[in-house]
Structure formats: structure tokens, C-alpha cells
Amino acid sequence: MPEGHSIHRLARQFNDVFAGEKVAVSSPQGRFVDGAALLDGHTIISAFAHGKHLFVNFENDLTLNVHLGIYGAWTFGGDDQFNGASSIGAPRTIGEKERGTAEVSGEYQGAPEPKATVRTRIVSEHGWADLIGPTICRVLTPDEVRGVRAKLGPDPLNDDADPASFYRAASKTGRPIGVVLMDQKSISGVGNIFRAESLWRQKINPFRPAKELDASELEALWEDNKHLLHIGVRVGRIITTEPDDRPGIPETEAWPEHANYVYMHHGEPCRRCGSIIRVEEVAGRKLYWCPGCQH
DNA sequence: GCCCTATGTTAAA
DNA sequence: TTAACCTAGGGCT
């Protein structure tokens, strides 16, 4: 799944290729037929992301709201006037891979026959986008969009995000900070990799009650997640290691074992203190951390 | 082919 | 806390 950075890349992609375009919307799979009919034939105004939610505004005041969950993914394709044919969403290879323009070449000949699992297909004059496996795919009114966003915590990738809201939420709960970072009502866009990596980078034990962290620690977590999310948006992958820790390996080519410090590194020695990295299931998700240097 | 896993979330128990 | 849901790929037999 895609953590928040993928959704912001998606929003950017939608703005690049669909903004101002009149589109055909359909549901080859058949599970979004009614929703698609509300949008079919209308013009896309713009798209934006809040945490892991994608919102696509149409000129008829309706908004397409998609959440990819763990499995969801969008695939794009089109002609030369359709920027950046690519795939964004659930990884289909080791690590996250978002395919570049080189994968789709030659003359655009129309969208391919959709797979039976395509929940939603969007087609413009110059290209197409297919959505598979989303947790959420629905059409919202402006009021409903506000309602959904009101339940989401601040997203470090959004310029108008208020970190104080995250600090307040963390300061009043005894839940572990590792759990709070995954709670989209407290902070949105952070997922299992960013939470593990940011806690390791800030040397904070994920099991510490959130309310016991001091202001500088909460601020460090906000700023580091913001920093790491921005790298994710720029590179299209989650890269949480510092350049010095992957000598000679450009961020765009970092292998999975070079890209992260603790995520999926259980059983290996911590590169900071040598202790063996551990993994434990917490609230249904695997939490990776170093018992030696995260206090 | 079968089993497992995954960057997620919600509802039921 | 558990189950359910959404899908595809990899490793195994």
C-alpha cells in the first residue's frame, strides 16, 4: 500500500493528465456502475490528496473519493499528449515500484480491454486510467467531502496542515506512539514503513505511551515524517536511509535492503548499535524496531 | 495449483 | 481482538 506519498503522486498525476478533460467513467467490474454513471461525461476540475485519500473534483460538484487500502492500484496509459503513463499503488514486485514512461511506448491505440477486476476506468481524449482493488471508491457531495476530511488528522504533505493538532492528539493518549503514528485521525498519510523508520531515526521506542513524549520529540517525529514523505513523493518510493548509509547507491536505485533501517530487517544487526532488530505484531500490523537504541 | 504475504481500514464480537 | 474485504505475485509442491 501505498502510504501517503503515493496518493499525492496520484493527485499530481490526475492533475497532469485529466484536469480540464471531459472523461468517460465506467466500471468494467460492475461494482461501481451507479457511481460511475454520476461522473460519466463530465469534466475533471482538479485532484488532491489528504492522507491516504484521493479526491477528484468534477465540474458537476461531485467528487470521486478513492482509498487504495493495501491492494489498490491505478494504472495509466495513453498517447504522447498524455503525460507519464505509469502505475501507482500496491507493489507488484519487491519493494515499491512505480513504472516510468518507458514502459508504454508507440502510438496510442485506445485503452486496452480492461481486466475483469477493473473497478473504475476513466478515459479522456488522450489516455486512460484503471483502478483495481480499492478499499473505497465512491462519489461524494461537497458536504460529504468535508465530513471525510474532518475525520482525518493533519497530513504533513499538505502545506496548510496544522502539526499542533497532531501534538494535541498524541499528548492526551496513553496509547503507544507507534500506534498513534498509524492512527489516521491523529496524523494522516503515515503508514507501517514510515512509522517504523521515523521512530528508529529519532531513537524513540515505539511502545512508549504517546503522552510521555516531550514536545521536541513529537515535533521531531512530525518533521521527520514530513521530510521522508516528501522524499517519497519526489522519488516514487519509500527511501528512509541517509545517503551516507548507502554509499554509492543513488536513491532512485536503492535496493530494498538499502532503502530502510528496520522495516523488514528483523534478525539483522542494527546499523547504529548492533542490537538485533526485532519484529512484533501490534494492533494487527508488524512493528519493526531496535531494542538497543530506541528509548 | 495452493499457501502466504502486503506500504490498510472497518465492523463485529 | 478477530474477521472481513479488496487483488496479485512469489515461493512452494
Automatic annotation (TrEMBL):
Residues 2-89 form the Formamidopyrimidine-DNA glycosylase catalytic domain. One of its GO terms (biological process) is base-excision repair. Its EC number is 4.2.99.18. Its cofactor is Zn(2+). One of its GO terms (molecular function) is oxidized purine nucleobase lesion DNA N-glycosylase activity. PROSITE patterns: FPG_CAT (PS51068), ZF_FPG_2 (PS51066). The keyword Cytoplasm does not apply. InterPro entries: FPG_cat (IPR012319), FPG_N (IPR035937), H2TH_FPG (IPR015886), Ribosomal_uS13-like_H2TH (IPR010979), Znf_DNA_glyclase/AP_lyase (IPR000214), Znf_FPG/IleRS (IPR010663). Transmembrane segments: none annotated. Residues 261-295 form the FPG-type domain. It catalyses: 2'-deoxyribonucleotide-(2'-deoxyribose 5'-phosphate)-2'-deoxyribonucleotide-DNA = a 3'-end 2'-deoxyribonucleotide-(2,3-dehydro-2,3-deoxyribose 5'-phosphate)-DNA + a 5'-end 5'-phospho-2'-deoxyribonucleoside-DNA + H(+). The keyword NADP does not apply. Keywords: DNA damage, DNA repair, DNA-binding, Glycosidase, Hydrolase, Lyase, Metal-binding, Multifunctional enzyme, Zinc, Zinc-finger. Belongs to the FPG family. This is DNA-(apurinic or apyrimidinic site) lyase. It comes from Rothia terrae.
